[in-house]
Amino acid sequence: MAADGTSSVADPDAVSSAAPVGRAGEVFRAFLVLGCTSFGGPTAHLSYFRESFVARRRWLADETYADLVALAQFLPGPASSQVGMGIGWMRAGWAGLLAAFVGFTLPSALLMAGAALGLTALLGPEATGLLAGLKAAAVAVVAQALAAMASSLASGGRRAAIALVCGALALLVAGPAGQVGAIALGAGLGLLLEPASGALASRDPLPAPRRRTGFALLAVLALVLVLPGPLAALFDWPALDLAGRFARAGALVFGGGHVVLPLLEAETVGRGLVSETGFLAGYGLAQAVPGPLFTFATYLGALAPPGGWGGALLATLAIFLPAGLLIAGALPFWSRLRALPGARRALAGVNAAVVGLLGAAFLDPVLPAGVTSGATALVALLALALLLAGTPAPLVVLGAGALGWLGL
């Protein structure tokens, strides 16, 4: 332990065997509390983490935490979950990384799986109003997220143009190809159009696994993204194919959890595995639970064949696996990545592209599916007004569902 109370790691690959089991338990308990109480999305989660692990427990220094956040934002995947995994790893090695993931994810995953299975039982005429209210709330949530992301990630004419071009590509090219193409186009346009700037600010290297471990983890990630489809076709395992699709969605998300919406919509609704109504109702519910928004995949896994609790578990592990492999695999190379002269420009283009992706998802399917009548339009507008006024999203979603149950 360093003099300032932070964790010091001399030989990080040895941490997993040297750290006491009690440290992993300590990490699990701390993140379980946060998983039960962390409402508000990724930005709020990062604030909770800093308060809990930097200011209060002093597990790591403020500068180390800031660098870990920068790495998570540079990488694709759920930023807050990746930061949590990184904190767990620094505290208790690989067992700590797993403990942080399970503790932070378990509460919302259980809630979303239970909601999906309960929704399946309720999908009768009596649930029509409830679902309409939840879909209207989803319209408001996505609209607010789109406005916030556009103001921070696509401000100015150049970045707004990148967002529009990439959003148009996502609308014109259906499915994952359009999503991946938009992200790649955004990175290329950022390199071409963004003004030259220095590399990301340099700090002391983060505690990290050895480079050979990083290479091995990134190689495993490549296999996770490539092999499930061919293996599923060879052995006729549709569940493995679905897991691969969730893993690819988890590996392609830049710019926050909301951006997973178009990727998962293409892989589930677009393939006829989940109804559009069930999809948007679940997305609305995801705003009402604490923890990572990526547990929306848990809900979809419970609905898509084979479904049930097994499908929920499979989807959860699949969508978060790339996040863990990326954060641990990239740590040894972060100091070099941040020194690349084009890193900041490419990242700016990718961030603008994800605004376009979210805008495309808002236009199709969120808006037409969520606003189907004058009454649902009023609910969506009321929900948006409450969100903009600072009302917590869980209360807005639950209120919209109640309004739908009573009056739609």
Automatic annotation (TrEMBL):
GO MF annotations, alphabetized: chromate transmembrane transporter activity
UniProt key word GTP-binding: no
Entries under InterPro entries matching the protein: Chr_Tranpt_l_chain, Chromate_transpt
Main location: membrane
Sequence intervals crossing the membrane: 27-49, 94-123, 129-148, 160-177, 214-234, 278-300, 312-334, 346-363, 375-406
Assigned keywords, A-Z: Cell membrane, Membrane, Transmembrane, Transmembrane helix
Pfam families according to UniProt: Chromate_transp
Membrane topology type: Multi-pass membrane protein
Domain of life assignment: Bacteria
Cited NCBIfam families: 2A51
Stored PANTHER family: CHROMATE ION TRANSPORTER (EUROFUNG) (PTHR33567)
Family listed: Belongs to the chromate ion transporter (CHR) (TC 2.A.51) family.
Protein name in UniProt: Chromate transporter
Organism: Aureimonas jatrophae
